[in-house]
Amino acid sequence: MNFKKQNPINQQKRATFGLGLITAIVVIPVLLILGVVFVKGISVIDWNFLTTEPTNGLREGGVFPAIVGTLILVVGAVVWSVPFGVATAIYLVEYSPRSRAANLVRLAILNLAGVPSVVYGLFGLGVFVIALKFGASILAGTLTLALMGLPVIVTSTAEALKAVPDRFREASLALGASKWQTTRHVVLPNSIQGILTGIILEISRAGGETAPILFTVAAFYLPRLPQSIFDQVMALPMHLFAISTQVPNIGLDVRYAVALTLLFLVLGINAVAISIRAKIRKNRIW
Amino acid sequence: MAKTLIKSEKFNLWYGDFQALIDIDLDIPENQVTAVVGPSGCGKSTFVRCINRLNDQINTVSTKGSIFIDGTDIYQYTADEVVGLRRSVGMVFQRPNPFPLSVFENVAFGLKTNPMVPDHQTIKKEVNKALQAVGLLEDLDGNLARPGTSLSLEQQQRLCIARCLPTRPKILLMDEPCSALDPSDTDKVEELIRELRKDYTVVIVTHNLQQAGRISDQSVLFHLGKIIEAAPTADFFQNPKEKRTRDFITGRYG
């Protein structure tokens, strides 16, 4: 019999080092981005910058309308996409888990996730802005963002529903609860965390996207707050794009300040959602 | 001989192409405990889950034949009637599965999902009565706000039994209710089952022959989807008619 020599302890050490190194390679750029944006942008950010309107063709003043605009767009996207996304996921998982129609819908949603965001922008322009005559407006923009967020909401909700153990469904049905009562009172309360995870992902995406809002809602320069859902708004990503490419002679530090404001805003909204999720997790008792 | 409450007539069930139950004929007497025994995969759980039509949940299941409760064929029921059927047939599962809610909400669940929701006072009364019946009211000192999942496994199983009671079922189905419990806890649950017989017809699946001997009035042996023998428990164990029953109770297979 032949033996081959090996040294498990050394292999273990090399594996630990290798995996740690790769993780560091992944993490360092993220920290660098945050660090660079912070260091270069923080000097410009003050109370005035955050609370006043831009003046002199975007060259001076603050970003207040863009902050409000981005907030409205994020909230609007969530408000449209969550009811539709959650309902679709419930139908797919609880009501028709293996039918041909459900498979088609699933396939369509997966494909939806792969569509580039600029295509959503053009779709929104064609359907919401022009065909439905919403014009470039909060309504058209949030609907476009919601459409883009749907795959994430549907997928994360579906996974959350599937993670609820069948023994809860059986117990509920065996007690004479209908399928809807079982879904409403047993399955949904136990999958709310996963649904929130989907919402958190959507917030980040909706807050940062430029292409879908470019033709549907974002205003280049609109130094006032919107009055109705048929108004346009400024948005931070669009504002960043505008001052970086369309307006000459704006200091680099101002651009970084806008980027930093966007980062803080999205992180802030996410922090709220994450703390709600953490609270639910703490109260969960199975 | 007691009155027959549940009657199975030439009942067959398929999971896709696989036939799990073959021509099941069985009479289950009222207010008695019927134990269903047999080796793993013999169809005993499947059969019990037919009595409240819980197998309807599985897409691939198809059935032929009838199961009568009180003279009506439950396999002629519409989807709405099936929901009503499940309120009159309680079920306790192998693994205790209280909802992640308080003890009170667990027991109130059946009433709150009723088409006619009773007022809060009535719900409270029924919940207390159900918990009293399984001996949990004393165990918990009336603290019904505790999460159901924080109880010991044995208490959880008694909670799951109590959860079935407020909708006033006639029948309690139990699918190996003690298999997750240790011997002393099993004693307590068995004692409870013996008491429940006064008010309910109990059908219990068990892999534990001694348990069948201790708690049941009638025993039924399933093998490969067929009933081998159904007899009063004393006869079943002391004087079995079939050779396969003799082999099974002496531990030669199963």
- Name the beta content range of chain A: under 5%
User: Overall mean pLDDT score of chain B?
Assistant: 91
Radius of gyration of chain B: 18 Å
What general form of chain A does the structure show?
A: globular
CATH superfamily of the domain at 69-234 in chain A: MetI-like
Q: Helical amount among residues of chain A, as a percent range?
A: over 70%
Total strand count of chain B, please?
A: 10
The residue ranges of chain B in which pLDDT falls below 50 over 5 or more consecutive positions are none
Question: Uncertain regions of chain A: pLDDT < 50 for 5+ in a row?
Answer: none
Distance between the termini of chain B: 30 Å
Proportion of strand residues of chain B: 25-35%
Quick description:
Chain A has 286 residues and is an all-alpha fold. Chain A has helices at residues 8-41, 47-51, 64-95, 100-113, 117-131, 138-162, 166-174, 179-187, 192-208, 211-214, 236-245, 252-283; strands at residues 54-55, 60-61. Chain A has twelve helices and two strands, in the order ααββαααααααααα.
Description:
The complex is a heterodimer of chains A (286) and B (254). The model of chain A has no long low-confidence stretch (mean pLDDT 90). The termini of chain A are far apart. Chain A has a two-stranded antiparallel sheet. Chain A has a domain at 69-234: MetI-like (MetI-like fold, Orthogonal Bundle). Chain A is 72% helix and 1% strand. With 286 residues, chain A is an all-alpha fold. In chain A, a hairpin with a 4-residue loop joins strand 1 (54-55) and strand 2. With 254 residues, chain B is of the alpha/beta class. Helix content of chain B is 35%, strand content 26%. In chain B, the strands form two sheets. Chain B has a six-stranded mixed sheet. In chain B, strands 2-1-4-5 form a four-stranded antiparallel sheet, with no helix packed on it. The longest helix of chain B has 14 residues, at 120-133. Chain B is globular, with a radius of gyration of 18 Å. The two termini of chain B are 30 Å apart. The mean pLDDT of chain B is 91. The chains are: A mainly alpha (286), B alpha/beta (254).
